[in-house]
Specification:
Layout (H helix, E strand, L loop, with lengths): L1 H26 L11 H7 L14 E2 L1 H10 L2 H5 L36 H4 L3 H11 L10 H14 L9 E2 L32
Antiparallel strand pairs: 1-2
Amino acid sequence: MEAFTTGFRRLLFVSAVLGICQAGWAQSPTYGLGRTPTAEEIHAWDIAISPTGKELPSGQGTAKEGAVLYVRKGCAGCHGMTGSGAHAPTLISSGDVHTASPVFCLAPCVNDSNTMGVHSPFPTTIWDYINRGMPLGKEGTLSADEVYSLTAFLLFKSGIIKEDEVMDAQSLPRVKMPNRGGFALPPEWKHGTPRLQGYP
């Protein structure tokens, strides 16, 4: 009787495992979960701005407008009135970004050699970061005009553009960043090859 009970338990266990696998296999294309997002839902999440700036929205701003917003939106609270604060990364270098040599570090990079004007190869990266990540705790609340103005302010204070230059979807991607030549795309990855040299 004991042998029968043990055998029955094993059979029951195997049957349960096979049943679960079969149920999972039947659902495998969609797993029976979720739904296809609508175009509006995708658009709401698709906010990344590429180096070409083709995704930039309409709007515009100048450094003068950005200087006012920098104070009004509380940027100075973390980044300091001069763009260098104790609580957040330095935004405005005190030196010449065209001659500074970048010193890379892990976050937070709070020093003159790691301002966005020094190490960011594309001005659209600055716009994108402000748009999605600032102000802290109120991310995504800035209008496109405000983001253009703050971006223009940082670029002007870093000596990259003139104070009266208007930044918009056409002019911003054309701004030449000091580290543009120091940027290189990684080699194209091919299936089955290591992503890093010497990595298994």
